[in-house]
């Protein structure tokens, strides 16, 4: 008798655009790093590292979490940011992490999309 082993990858990608954010926060590299750290904590993820790059006047921040990554890219001159929270596995809540970033950047409106990144091999 043959035994089937089902292999599955669980992934969730939460992403969107944030409008009418606080431009002062969007250009502050230190604040954005702290926002990503707190988002990882609120989401229940294991933070491995955070890197930030000042791209005048904006900033790009990537937090590497054991479960995948959190990123923020900003355009303060447009009071605009894009955010991605991508997780592999069932640990944590990427929507909570995303919503923390929306609140921390003081976005007056935003989009929120959720995409499944699952894969099953049977």
TrEMBL record:
Active-site residues, Swiss-Prot/TrEMBL: 68, 73, 88
Catalysed reaction equations from the record: S-adenosyl-L-methionine + H(+) = S-adenosyl 3-(methylsulfanyl)propylamine + CO2
Pfam families found in the cross-reference section: AdoMet_dc
Site entry: Cleavage (non-hydrolytic): 67-68
Cofactor note: Binds 1 pyruvoyl group covalently per subunit.
Key words, A-Z: Autocatalytic cleavage, Decarboxylase, Lyase, Polyamine biosynthesis, Pyruvate, S-adenosyl-L-methionine, Schiff base, Spermidine biosynthesis, Zymogen
Listed EC numbers: 4.1.1.50
Co-factor(s): pyruvate
Enzyme class: lyase
GO process terms (BP): spermidine biosynthetic process
NCBIfam families, alphabetized: SAM_DCase_Bsu
PANTHER family for the chain: S-ADENOSYLMETHIONINE DECARBOXYLASE PROENZYME
Similarity comment: Belongs to the prokaryotic AdoMetDC family. Type 1 subfamily.
Purpose: Catalyzes the decarboxylation of S-adenosylmethionine to S-adenosylmethioninamine (dcAdoMet), the propylamine donor required for the synthesis of the polyamines spermine and spermidine from the diamine putrescine.
Subunit structure: Heterotetramer of two alpha and two beta chains arranged as a dimer of alpha/beta heterodimers.
Name this polypeptide is given: S-adenosylmethionine decarboxylase proenzyme
Gene coding for it: speH
């Amino acid at each position: 008798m043959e035994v089937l082993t089902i292999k599955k990858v669980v992934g969730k990608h939460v992403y969107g655009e944030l409008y009418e954010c606080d431009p002062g926060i969007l250009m502050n590299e230190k604040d954005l790093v702290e926002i990503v750290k707190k988002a990882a904590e609120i989401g229940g993820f294991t933070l491995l590292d955070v890197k930030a790059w000042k791209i005048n006047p904006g900033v790009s921040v990537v937090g590497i979490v054991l479960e995948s990554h959190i990123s923020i890219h900003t355009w303060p001159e447009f009071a605009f940011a894009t955010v991605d929270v991508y997780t592999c596995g069932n640990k944590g809540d990427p929507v909570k992490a995303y919503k923390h970033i929306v609140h921390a950047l003081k976005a007056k409106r935003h989009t929120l999309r959720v995409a499944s990144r699952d894969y099953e091999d049977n």
